[in-house]
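Dear colleague,

Thank you for sharing your sequence with our group. We've completed the structure prediction you requested, and as agreed, I am returning the results in plain text so they can be pasted directly into your records. Please verify that the sequence below matches your submission; if there's any discrepancy, let me know and we will rerun it promptly.
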Amino acid sequence: MNDRFLRACRREPVDRTPIWLMRQAGRYLPEYRTLREKYDMLTMCRTPELAVEVTLQPLRRFDLDAAILFSDIMIPLAAMGVDFNIVESVGPVVANPVRDQRGADALRVIEPERAVPFVIEAVRLLRRELRVPLIGFAGAPFTLASYIVEGKPSRELLLTKKLLHCDPPAWHALMDKLAQTIAAYLLAQIRAGAQAVQLFDSWVGVLSPRDYREFVLPHSKKIFAALAPTGVPRIHFGTGTATLLELLKEAGGPATGSGPAVIGVDWRVPLDHAWERLGDVALQGNLDPAVMLTSPDSVEQHAHEILAQAHGRRGHIFNLGHGVLPNTPLENVERLIEVVHSHGK
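Please find the predicted structure tokens below.
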């Protein structure tokens, strides 16, 4: 097995910088679009054979160093009692938003093997197929709470902020249910064979450090503490987190127990600056996904700049600062991987 991704997570020596891409399985691939003409998103996520096929699609095209399970962060919420659908060009739309203590109390903490057996089966099937490590994942409590409270995607998250400030007990009750569920969900993926896990906190960048510490940190910390005894690499990722990096480390770093921790960095913070602030941790990132829409030469230039910031330091996993965009040219992905793998040779 190609294990350079896992070794980089542990800040061990590697023969070349490992690379994988968030949303590396998705709409930029013609074979994925062909499947989407036949199946809706939730059907693909809930059918193990389809989830396996989509996970493998980018691995057949590109020399990537890890696979990430094809699924959606909303998947465990249905079993909790959240009625939602994924609407094309909109995102998750929730029919029964939670905005008070009663709504939070009505949610259930799931047993993943019973509630989402299709995810667990997909992980098991993938481990038989893959020659690179498999990354499991989940949405972080804050990002999931934002969908549950807002009822649909929102950039300002005004209803979410209103709930956490005006009714802290209801907010913490909701976050506690989510933290318990996500911890169990990720542990179930690890038991099924996931060799690393990533917690996606895509919307947490809307919060100030003060609000993160009071309303998010205790719940994210519980998840990482539950994962730590497994010893698998755990990646803590968010966007717009330039003011929160130290708190992300506090939530998912070595203080929570044994096992390597990786901090995902988006394009707003140079890697070398992030290392100056965080010290000896592994970092994942951090090319702006918009660069991937340009030209192979531009992609190469930006990739070299990021690799220069890493300066051969142990613990760098090359990735984008967020997911691959739908119109990304395949040749740009190919060039990026070639540049990263050839760097320093």
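Summary note from our side: The longest strand covers residues 134-139.

Kind regards,
the structure core
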